[in-house]
Amino acid sequence: MSTVRASAFGTGALSRACALIHTLLTVEALLLLAASPGLAGLLLLRPDPAHLPLAALCLLPLGPALSAALYALHHRGRDLTELHPARAFLRGWRLNARPALALWAPLLAWLTVIAFTLTHFAATGLPGWWAVLLGGIGVGSLLWGAHALVLTSLFVFRARDTARLAAYVLLRHGRATLAAASLLVLTAALTALLTEALPALLAAPLLLSLLHGSRTVITETREEFTA
């Protein structure tokens, strides 16, 4: 009887729910800690378009932190006897910090250029439809970045191969792109309607949702693009 009870411990629905909550809280805390130098800098910046380049610099640590969080959530234990979220996060950071930054830094620079142009659009003298075009390019870049972040967090590719694969996924996997777009809209709504800090505090469940929406992408990449 004791053997049966021992083997069943940690495998029930309640145990799995507790394991998920524990993992989300741990990953969230480690993500905020890893990104804290940049987030602290953001708090000191006034909401001024002239500070966009500084804001981009402050966001640099966030890329490797998001990648490590995705790695930890993907490799999370499903029951209370197999919980090592902190160990998985640290391993993900060690493995992915450099490749994630190689994609995150150019993306931030590109988005900064777009945001700076849009905030100073009246001075450019361009027709209004250019603003719409730039906004669409910015949204597309964010969606590409979401796919690239998932791919570089879970697979080992060269940066340029990850960039090309993310562009392929953006066009080929409409459902995964739509799921990422939904999370982008949700994040923007939380920021605009409530507070800028809320998306950061809910980063772990948002990333878990991103992984869930990218299941077909992960499966195809594993089967078609890895040995």
Q: Could you characterize the architecture of this molecule?
A:
The chain is an all-alpha fold and 227 residues long. The chain contains twelve helices and no strands. Helix 2 crosses helix 3 (52-58), helix 4 (62-74) crosses helix 11 and helix 5 (85-119) runs antiparallel to helix 7. Mean pLDDT is 89; it is low at 1-9.
Summary of the model, kept short:
By secondary structure, the protein is an all-alpha fold.
Number of strands: 0
Order of helices and strands: HHHHHHHHHHHH
Q: What is the percent of helical residues?
A: over 70%
Structural class based on helices, strands and sheet pairing: mainly alpha
Q: Roughly how many Å apart are the termini?
A: 45 Å
Query: Shape from CA axes?
Result: globular
- What share of the residues does DSSP label as strand, in percent? under 5%
Reported for the largest beta sheet, the result is: none
Q: Could you name the ranges where pLDDT drops below 50 across 5 or more consecutive residues?
A: 1-9
The radius of gyration is 19 Å
Overall pLDDT score = 89
Secondary structure elements and their pairing?
Elements lengths: L1 H7 L4 H32 L7 H7 L3 H13 L10 H35 L1 H4 L3 H27 L4 H14 L1 H20 L3 H5 L1 H11 L1 H10 L3
Characteristic key phrases:
single chain; 227 residues
